[in-house]
Design a protein that fits this description.
The complex is a heterodimer. By secondary structure, chain A is an all-alpha fold. Chain A is built from 11 helices and no strands. In chain A, helix 3 runs antiparallel to helix 8 and helix 6 runs antiparallel to helix 8. The N and C termini of chain A lie close together (about 10 Å). Chain B is an alpha/beta fold. In chain B, helix 5 links the parallel strand 6 and strand 7. Chain B has a 6-stranded mixed sheet with strand order 5-6-7-3-8-9, sandwiched between helices. Chain B has a 3-stranded antiparallel sheet with strand order 2-1-4, with helices on one face. The chains are: A mainly alpha, B alpha/beta. At the A-B interface, helix 7 and helix 8 of A face helix 2 of B.
Chain lengths: ~260, ~240
């Protein structure tokens, strides 16, 4: 199987699914408010393109801001843990709270604290909470996986803590950090969407708001077109992160070389 | 150069017991012993990565000798090319400049890797990686070179080539070498002196000098080599406590 086959096969499968879907909706006369056909969804997408693109950009903006904040916070905390064992033992179990608490459960609290007028800030905070942990856990794992002999070599050469961090720990943990970021960027999007749902109608302008509004109006074709854009956004973000990961690791890490093969 | 006095080392159980050993400046000393006998621990004590549970490790001639450590694995940084790996000890001491880069390039050439400066470790063979590791440990000017079974994972031919190259460099630079190995013949071939440790808690059970004056090739084929080999093997066998 060559690369072209790998790329084309799922596309052909998708086209076939759309054809069957279109055919069944028409032949069974399924009402538009239950399940629109792919062509209805496409038409709705064209008709509402400006509004949908604006909402997509808004969701993308919130996702990226949350993802960047989560990544910086998580790496900084992991670095702090690597410098102080006692801080790691004390704080790491507490950070697990972020991982196990459902974002929907804390959303009302964050909204109250930030204020309903600042729904976008609340959404970013909630998205950060969701996206934060995978980067922290993976960076921490990366730091703990540093080759023992390499550490000893740095000790023999009397390296400072800063040199150990910048010349050994961070480069060694890079593949781990990137894996965490790849998970985290998807979670940031999920966090942004869920938080927007919880924030409620009229408070924000992302894709979730379109989904809620279209659902209320039984404009299912528009709802589906927002959903399609959401899926495309998720795929785009994943591919973006995969491409960044590949370009950083391609010269020296096996995972990137396997991707090439 | 280096003196171990009444060394005891205990982790979960006692590893080393009453080790007394003096290593002379410029000497090539090999340490033989069964697995788990604390040979590697002795090297870590020599480099002061570890402190002994009892006893002292002293550097006699200089307070802080420049130490190079070659591990069993090449222990290269996969994200750095050959040149950046070799130059690392100098970089850590914040002395990196054009001169040190030239010096690193010279060492890369001396270990037979000219033209591989920009290759990544993943693109090198096991023997080439070990050559990079040796160049890295010598690049800053080494007083004491510690080698922990460096050639054990290599094939016979590569191993012999690296042994000869190491000897050639040592004869020119005259740094002190502590060489840990499982191979009796390797220890005899390379060293001026050999100590044999018993199984844990390890004690020095034998010490022998190699005084052959001819070429290494002749020595390898000589009867003397075989006799020393048999003698040390016997000592090793006795030292393994069932």
């Amino acid at each position: 199987m060559n690369k072209l086959t790998n790329f084309i096969s799922p596309l052909i499968a998708l086209v076939i699914i759309f054809i069957i879907w279109e055919f069944l909706v028409n032949i069974l006369s399924v009402p538009l408010y239950i399940l629109p056909s792919p062509s209805d969804i496409f038409l709705s997408l064209i008709n509402n393109l400006n509004e949908l693109l604006l909402a997509t950009l808004n969701t993308l903006k919130i996702t990226l801001v949350a993802f960047i904040i989560a990544t910086i916070l998580a790496i900084s905390l992991a670095v702090t843990f690597s410098l102080s064992k006692i801080l790691e033992i004390s704080l790491y179990p507490i950070t697990v709270i972020f991982q196990v608490t459902p974002v929907v459960a804390v959303a009302p609290l964050i909204l109250i604290w930030v204020g309903l007028d600042n729904a976008e800030t609340a959404i970013i905070i909630l998205s950060v909470i969701v996206a934060f942990f995978p980067v922290l856990a993976n960076t921490n794992l990366g730091f703990h996986s540093v080759d023992k002999n390499l550490k000893e070599m740095f000790i023999i050469n009397k390296a400072s803590k800063w040199q150990v961090l910048t010349k050994l720990n961070l480069p060694f943990a890079t593949p781990y950090i990137l894996t965490g970021m790849k998970t985290s960027i998807g979670l940031a999007l999920i966090g942004a969407v869920v938080a927007e749902f919880v924030a409620g109608t009229g408070t924000s302008t992302g894709l979730s708001w379109i989904i809620i509004e279209s659902g209320n109006r039984l404009d299912i074709a528009k709802l589906f077109s927002a959903l399609v854009l959401l899926v495309l956004l998720g795929v785009f973000l994943f591919l973006l992160m995969s491409s960044i990961e590949y370009n950083i690791l391609k010269r020296w890490h096996q995972s990137a070389k396997d991707t090439e093969g | 150069m280096l003196r171990f006095s009444n060394i005891h080392m205990k982790f979960d159980k006692e590893i080393l017991s009453n080790i007394n050993l003096e290593v002379k400046k410029g000497e090539f000393l090999s340490i033989l012993g069964p697995s788990g006998s604390g040979k590697s621990t002795l090297l870590r004590l020599a480099s002061k990565i570890l402190d002994p549970s009892k006893g002292t490790v002293e550097y006699k001639d200089q307070r802080e000798p420049l130490i190079g450590f070659v591990f069993q694995e090449p222990t290269l940084m996969p994200w750095r090319d050959v040149l950046s790996n070799v130059v690392l000890p100098i970089e850590i001491k914040n002395k990196k400049n054009q001169l040190t880069k030239d010096y690193a390039l010279e060492w890369i050439e001396r270990v037979g890797l000219k033209g591989k400066e920009n290759s990544y470790p993943d693109e090198l063979s096991g023997g080439q990686k070990m050559r990079v590791s040796i160049a890295r440990s010598l690049v800053q000017g080494c007083d004491l070179l510690l080698l922990d079974e460096p050639f054990s994972a290599l094939d016979e031919v590569t191993r012999r080539r690296l042994e000869d190259d190491l000897l050639q460099i040592w004869e020119k630079e005259k740094f002190t070498v502590l060489f840990v190995t499982h191979s009796v013949s390797e220890a005899i071939y390379l060293s001026q002196r050999i100590i044999v440790l018993s199984s844990g808690p390890a004690e020095i059970i034998h010490e022998g000098h190699i005084n052959y004056q001819g070429s290494k090739k002749d020595f390898l084929e000589s009867r003397e080599f075989q006799e020393i080999n048999n003698n040390i093997y016997e000592k090793l066998e006795k030292g393994i406590r069932e």
